[in-house]
Known about the structure:
Elements: E1 7-11, E2 21-25, E3 28-34, H1 36-59, H2 82-88
Amino acid sequence: MGMQATIRIELETVGDPRSTFRLQIGDKVVDANLTAMQTHLLVGEILKRIVLREAVAARDPTTPTDREAPRLKHDPAWKPSATQEKAAA
């Protein structure tokens, strides 16, 4: 298993039930001003990718890290796949 990080969801305005949320992974703010639904979907996507990465590593431990799971666009190392590049062209 790889490095452990904490996923933290914080209210932008504490005490305001209509407030938006800030999402952090470890010490890095991933996104801010998210609605409850956006926060829910983003956390679900992050958890799904963690599970996918572990499943691929369990099947083939020689798989390169960059092929283990797709990266989020918020990740500085994110690059479009060949299929996405063709679609954009």
